[in-house]
Design a protein that fits this description.
The chain is built from 12 helices and 14 strands. It is globular. A hairpin with a 2-residue loop joins strand 6 and strand 7. It has a 10-stranded mixed sheet, with helices on both faces. The chain is α/β, with parallel strands linked by helices. Helix 1 runs parallel beside helix 12 and helix 11 (about 320-335) crosses helix 12. About 40% of the residues lie in helices and about 20% in strands. The chain has 2 domains: about 1-110 and about 260-365, Isopropylmalate Dehydrogenase; about 130-260, Isopropylmalate Dehydrogenase (3-Layer(aba) Sandwich), CATH 3.40.718.10.
Length: about 375
């Protein structure tokens, strides 16, 4: 029996629409070759929504997101919207949808494909075989804490933000991290700044308490400055890493560049499981909107396609299909095809569209 999954597509800005078109091709292929049908709707977010509604995320789009089984997003932002008021910038739409959907756990894999080892700026022996999963707390911390703002005090302007975490917020992201570690290599490193910040003293205490429920997992703690250094010194020492919103934002981008290209990396943002085990979830590539190359059919669609594979695995319990797509990506790369961002000597530079076609051809071979 064919199952139907409701997916909201949010192409967003810049290269978002063109990379999302290649995901739609994979969905169409699956509808023909697998026992699944994707009922897709489309919405506006970010700059595209600002242009249409003067709002980076409308109530209508948010309602569609809440009703979907999962959301797939392209990218938001660009210099076109640099000079508009802060509270309606494109990125505010992204923060709002994460907050309203309760997407507290951001999964950011940093995986080096064998065919792309040479694309990394680090030596081959440092990155070959790298496979890290970074879990970033996504709805708390300094990005959302109150009070915040800019105000004048005795004739001097001050900008201020509040870094605050509650025990339940830390516990829920810690449990996701431990669950992930149990499914991988049973090693988990919690990153904080407990030598300076009281909020992360609490963070470390809660992680230690949750660790007692996962005796098989080897737990370590590391200050964020050391973690940044270790990521470029010896990244393979890590398996699962869990950290705060801001630290995760920074470290996951650092880890992404170990792989050679942001254009290759997916991400998933998950909410709490309901009584049926289902979670609200949003999937998006790590790369930005790249407005300088938008509309030129040269963007790398693989991160968005791999984000869709994460959707199959984490939202739809379709792990075999997710693995098939990931294998097809590896096979395309082994065959020597490259978009401009990952181009290497001796390889064949192809367009966004051709990369999508090549992936469909590999999926046909795998089936």
């Amino acid at each position: 029996m064919t199952i139907t999954k409701k997916v909201l597509m949010l192409p967003g800005d810049g290269i978002g629409p063109e990379v999302m078109r290649q995901v739609q091709r994979v969905m169409d292929w699956m509808a023909k070759k697998r026992d699944v049908n994707f009922e897709t709707t489309e919405g506006l977010i970010g700059g595209a929504s600002i242009d249409a509604h003067n709002n980076p995320l409308t109530d209508e789009t948010l309602a569609k997101a809440m009703a979907a089984d999962a959301v797939l997003l392209g990218a938001v932002g660009g210099p076109k919207w640099d000079d508009i008021p802060f509270d309606i910038k494109p990125e505010r739409g992204l923060l709002k949808i994460r907050k309203e959907m309760g997407l507290f756990a951001n999964l950011r894999p940093a995986l080096v494909f064998d065919a792309l080892v040479g694309a990394s700026t680090l030596k081959e022996d440092i990155v070959k075989g790298l496979d890290i999963m970074i879990l970033r707390e996504l709805t708390g911390g300094i990005y959302f804490g109150q009070p915040r703002g800019i105000e004048e005090r005795d004739g001097v302007r001050f900008g201020f933000n509040t870094l605050v975490y509650s025990e339940p917020e830390v516990e829920r992201i810690a449990r996701v991290a431990f669950d992930m570690a149990m499914k991988r290599n049973k090693r988990m490193c919690s990153v904080d700044k407990a030598n300076v910040l009281e909020s992360t003293v609490l963070w470390r205490e809660v992680v230690e308490r949750v660790a007692k429920d996962f005796p098989e997992v080897e737990v370590s703690h590391m200050y964020v400055d050391n973690a940044a250094m270790q990521l470029v010194r010896n990244p393979k020492q890590f398996d699962v890493m869990v950290t705060t919103n801001m630290f995760g934002d920074i470290l996951s981008d650092c880890a992404a560049m170990l792989t050679g290209s942001l254009g290759m990396l997916p991400s998933a943002s998950l909410g709490a499981a309901d009584d049926t085990g289902a979670r609200k979830a949003l999937y998006e590539p790590v790369h930005g909107s790249a407005p300088d190359i938008a509309g030129q059919d040269i963007a790398n669609p693989l991160a968005t396609i791999l984000s869709f594979a994460m959707m199959l695995r984490y939202s739809f319990d379709m792990g075999d299909d997710a693995t098939m797509i990931e294998t097809a990506v590896q096979n395309v790369l082994k065959g020597g095809l490259r978009t401009a961002d990952i181009m290497q000597p001796g390889m064949a530079k192809v367009s966004t569209t051709v990369m999508g076609e090549a992936l469909i051809n590999e999926l046909d071979k795998l089936v």
